[in-house]
Amino acid sequence: MIPFVFIAFIVLTVISACVVLWSNNVLYAAFSLLLTFFGIAALYVLVGADFIAITQLLVYVGGILVLLLFGVMLTNQNGNKENGKNDIIGTNTNRLIGFAVAFGLFALLFFTFAKANFVNIQSNLFESIETFSTTQNIGVLLMTDFVLPFEVSGVLLMATLIGAAYLSSKTKV
Amino acid sequence: MQQIPDVIREIPLNYYVWFSAALFCIGIIGVLTRRNAIIIFMSVELMLNSVNLLLVAFSSYKADPAGQIFVFFIMAVAAAEVAVGLAIIVMIYRNIQTIDVGLLNKLKW
Q1: Which residues of B touch A141 (CB under 8 A)?
Q2: What was the ipTM of the complex prediction?
């Protein structure tokens, strides 16, 4: 079972990376980069690195992708006639199909959860799972063996913050 | 991490190596062929991600968390790189009204 899930996430990641490669619309490329990051986070989970998977979601999806979207929108080609495909402004289409799909999914989930008997499950849920986590090991190592690189990366992020704010300020220097 | 988790015993390490190589090559194609500066940044992120995945895979198969700490630092550096790079791109756009890297040829001779 696990290899099939692994292959499925690999296929998802490669296809969305190819969309990043070949898409003409920068916004579509950014959103398919989201799928790539999610696929790689799933592969981290499959390899047993839970802390790195969560960090991938927080840093890449929550930080870097939002920054890239800011970059796309700050440099958009709105009104550029010869490059009209990069236009950011869109309209709503397929409203009926969208609502139908969303409500159908909600109904499916609702009836599935109504049929599942969670009261029996939740009492022995946490005893039956063998816990395996890498977070404690990583935390101990970060505070003992790797404490100097940890502090240096903090200084690096501080310098980056100052530099990015200085570079993108509107005042001429 | 005294023992290898049960989940990854079913997947050979070779698959991770091949997949990381493929993702890295996709990133290289993106950097070399695209002209939009933001797409080039996305391709650089793809290459960083493939290297991270390879480091995590080797660290997990060896049951040694030091590789995952390297990945943690690589993520911090990637965040710094994207922040400064996007500030530079926004400055370029403000000056020459485009982010096509083919038009940035003032230093070429």
Answers
A1: 65-66, 69
A2: 0.88
